[in-house]
Specification:
alpha+beta; Rossmann fold; 25% helix
Length: 61
């Protein structure tokens, strides 16, 4: 069976949140929180050059 062309976009195995933030009022923090609330089971990569860890996950510059 072949995979639908939009499968990787609609059902990703991992997500990189560029602009992830520890500021509770930021869009980056909201996106990160929603991915955890919605039960995303893939790997999450927060991207923020100022932080080493965010939400218990290592940050990438």
């Amino acid at each position: 069976m072949t995979q639908h062309p939009l499968g990787p976009l609609l059902c990703p195995r991992s997500i990189a949140f560029v602009g992830a933030s520890d500021r509770p009022d930021s869009t980056g923090a909201a996106m990160l929180a929603m991915s955890q609330i919605d039960g995303f089971t893939g790997t999450i990569y927060p991207v923020n050059p100022r932080l080493a860890v965010l939400a218990g996950k290592p940050c990438y510059p």
